[in-house]
Amino acid sequence: MPQFETVIIGAGPAGLTAAYLLAKAGRSVLVLEKDPVHVGGISRTVNHDGFLFDIGGHRFFSKSKEVVDLWNEILPDDFIDRPRLSRIFYGGKYYSYPLKAFEALTNLGIATSTACVASYAWARLRPIENPRTFHEWVRNQFGEKLFSIFFKTYTEKVWGMSCDEISADWAAQRIKGLDLATAVWSALTRGLKRKPTGKDGKVIKTLIDSFRYPRRGPGMLWEEAARKTERFGGRVLMGRNVEALAWDEAKGVWTVTARTEDGGVETHVGKNVVSSAPIRELAAALQPNLMSRPAAERLRYRDFLTVALVCRGGDLFPDNWIYIHDPSVKVGRVQNFNSWSPEMVPDPSFGCLGLEYFCFEGDGLWSSSDEDLVKLAIKEVVQIGLVSADDVLKGVVVRQPKAYPVYDDEYRDNVEQVRAEVEGAFPTLHLVGRNGMHKYNNQDHAMMTAMLTVENIVAGTRRFDIWNVNEDAEYHEAGYEGAKEALASERLVPKKAA
Predict the structure, then answer these.
(1) CB distance 216 to 78 below 8 Å
(2) Positions in the chain short of pLDDT 70
(3) Strands (E), 297-391
(4) Can you give the pLDDT at residue 217?
(5) What is the pLDDT of residues 357-377, one digit of tens each?
(6) Count of alpha carbons within 13 Å of 461, Cβ hemisphere only?
(7) Residue 178 buriedness (CB in 10 A; 0-12 / 13-18 / 19+)
(8) What φ, ψ does residue 87 adopt, rounded to 5°?
(9) How far apart are alpha carbons 95 and 356 in whole angstroms?
């Protein structure tokens, strides 16, 4: 039985980044991917009769020079520059995002606008000390009224739980870089046709207007990464569901058992294992069993499905996506794939919209038939005024389990228990990426965890503590300008492990 230096579980951004870099360095590497067709995980691109759609929407930007360089190395000729435009739909009206102050005031009306300002002022004067929940954190930053209008409904759609059950960690991570005063000031500077700046005169990274994107979707990058990994001598096996992961301490090797799509069983041996699988699934497969397995089993995930609708009329509206904050419909966000890239549709006279529904695996939405989900999507896209029913030609449903790790009150303690035991008992088992670390990180952060893990494997020690990779959202909306700035900026390198 051949022995690999490293066996990688999962061919998403983290797994394929590790595989590509290890194979490029001449190391023997094997990737086991559960999906029988697609690499890229949630960053894959689905092709339905020539219509391409992205699972979730992935703009390419990073403050990390290494990540930007790696994107360019893997896919040197296929990135395009795209304008960034998104809006919020609430109460039957559309609001530009980022905020346009006068538009927002007009849409909300004098009474509601006054209440928002008063609520904001009160929150700044009387903040909740040590905010524990998403609700408390956002209330402190924006006021109770704006929380109820622009945060509560959408957040509860995404997570399927009350904002009082969601950890403040989620808010601090995802909306840290944007405050109300900065947004209003930016709206005024945009009105004067200047680059969006703060009061200090610096360009606000969260409000920049363009980004990079592979011309045929993000899956294009990861498909090429898989091909190049194999050209360097690595192996990528599809349709492999890892069922057991056994550690032999005496020999210092892992035996990984995977079931193939046709029901067969394969066994692979490796010195190192890099796992981007959900922690809960990894813990169930590990042998010997983790003492912290009950903590892993308490980790929760939010699932996700996209209903892609093919419509007459070409590019139906200019937005890349629209956030649906209105509680009258179940859809959470609408992607406009034509606006991501013209090459996402085979004919410019057609448009393709992706209606995103957040759910739990096995609940009513998840278990609905594809036919019923397409009917729901058509009804709701008509209700919010984006297209007419007669213009919708067909629809297709794609389900994505475990799309988002849930940040509830217990998640941090549960993850720490698993992490401490894994690092102590299994020195050659490396957790990477969003689900592998139960961190709702962006694509570039997931890649950085893998890049540093490769350095640890090559060095033969945990030289870098990858859990220190920045996951904050200070540049969550940075766009292409943020990526270009990264080319001349300092390296994003976390602290070395103690």
Answers:
(1) yes
(2) 1-2, 98-101, 173-208, 470-498
(3) 301-312, 321-324, 333-336, 350-359
(4) 96
(5) 999 999 999 999 999 999 999
(6) 4
(7) buried
(8) -135, 165
(9) 19
Q: What share of the chain is helix, strand, coil (3-state, %, to 5)?
A: 40, 25, 35
> How far apart (Å, rounded) are the C-alpha atoms in residues 268 and 263?
16
Smallest CA-to-CA distance from 5 within 314, 349, 235, 340 is with: 235
**Contact of 272 with 262, CB cutoff 8 Å:** no
Query: What is the tens place of the pLDDT at every residue in 169-227?
Result: 877 766 654 555 555 545 545 544 444 444 444 444 444 578 899 999 999 999 999 99
**Cα distances (angstroms) measured from residue 87 to each of 104, 107, 321, 334:** 11, 13, 7, 10
Q: What percent of the chain has pLDDT over 70?
A: 86
- DSSP symbols for 372-424: HHHHHHHHHHHHTTSS-GGGEEEEEEEEEEEEEE---TTHHHHHHHHHHHHHH
Whole-angstrom distance, CA of residue 405 vs CA of residue 170: 10
CA atoms within 13 A on the CB side of 412: 7
State both tokens at 383.
């209700």
The residues facing 302 across adjacent strands are 404
Q: Do the Cβ atoms of 45 and 75 come closer than 8 Å?
A: no
Q: Domains of the chain (ranges plus CATH)?
A: 3-42+59-75+215-297+409-474 (3.50.50.60), 100-208 (no CATH), 301-405 (3.90.660.20)
- Longest pairwise C-alpha distance within the chain: 74
- Structure tokens belonging to residue 208: 């920049």
